[in-house]
Amino acid sequence: MSTATTKRPTEPICPPWCDGHDGKFQAWETMTAGGISRDHSHFSPVRGGNDLGVAVCRTEYEPGGLDLSEVLIFCGSDSASLTPAQARVFALRVLEAVELAEGETGAHA
Ligand SMILES: [Zn+2]
Question: Which residue numbers in the chain have pLDDT < 50?
Answer without folding.
Answer: 1
